[in-house]
Amino acid sequence: MPVVGILFIIGLALLAAAATFTVERLVPAKRREAHNEVLGFVYAVVGVTYAVLLGLVVVSTWTSLDEARANTYAEANALSYLDWYAYSLPPPQHAEIEDLLRQYTFTVITAEWPLMARQQSSPEAWTVYTYLHEVIQAQQPATPADVARYQAAVDASNQLGAARRERLNQAADDIPSLLWAALILGGVITVGFALLFGMKSTGTHAIIMFCLTMLIGGLLLVIFEMNAPFRGVVRVDSEAFKLALARMRLVP
Fold it and tell me: What is the spatial distance between Cα 50 and Cα 56, in angstroms, rounded to a whole number?
């Protein structure tokens, strides 16, 4: 987790705890205790509603992160198959496709991955992929076995393009501003309502407020870090492509 985010959440939690003593001075607990029963019913509705929303968003962002990671391996697997297909071709075509595959993989790792953190893509990677796809399509198989390998290579090339487009779409995905507003407003309301309860021990109330704010703030920080699959502390790295590149270097 980023240090700044953690410190910010701790600061908010301390502020919420301090607010407990301020509220006690303005409206003593004895006066607030009379409304605890009504507040309890309202708070139950508010708390459950916000907990469901928060839980759904956490699960959704985690699922998106897993899907983005799985998609990188699908793209890398397509590269590996095309590399084996290139190995079955005569030297000129073999060398051309092999060079294009290595160039594409290296470009994705070194140039495109940092760009995806800014929701951008590499024009060079697009150019190399387009030319690679054209070269695969231009092959002219002669024997039935060559035809079968060619068709599988065409399918792998199409899979490579689909996985690439999906990866870039996932890099551009973000939680809508309206949902962020609902999450933050819901957190403020949930914490604010908890301040209104009257408790005999102000210190205990302050501890509860601190823990509640830490919990909500921590979950919001987790959502923020997992919001974009290719940036943040919890992100998808280029390990799948590095493995694919290592395999390519093993093929003569």
Answer: 10
Residue 150 CB partners (closer than 8 Å, separation 6+): 85, 139, 141
- 170 CA to centre of own chain: 8
Q: Rounding to the nearest 10 degrees, give the CA dihedral for residues 33, 35, 40, 46.
A: -120
Q: Alpha-carbon distance 161 to 137, whole Å? A: 13
Please say whether the beta carbons of 171 and 116 come within 8 A.
yes
Tokens for 117?
Answer: 């953190």
- Identify the pLDDT of residue 86: 87
Which residues, 6 or more positions from 9, have their beta carbon under 8 angstroms from its beta carbon?
A: 213, 214, 217, 218, 221
- At which residue do the structure tokens 């399509």 appear? 137
Picking from 134, 157, 153, the residue whose alpha carbon sits closest to that of residue 145 is 153
Output the pLDDT for position 252. Answer: 60
Query: pTM higher than 0.85, yes or no?
Result: no
pLDDT tens digits, 66-88: 999 999 999 999 999 999 888 88
Tokens of 32: 């607030």
The alpha carbon torsion through 85, 71, 2, 174 (nearest 10 deg) reads: 130
Domain locations along the chain: 49-203+218-250
As a whole number of angstroms, the distance between CA 216 and CA 47 comes to 11
User: By CB neighbour count within 10 A (0-12 exposed, 13-18 middle, 19+ buried), where does 1 fall?
Assistant: middle
**In this predicted structure, which of 9-18, 44-53, 224-233 has the lowest mean pLDDT?**
224-233
- Tokens coding 150: 């060619």
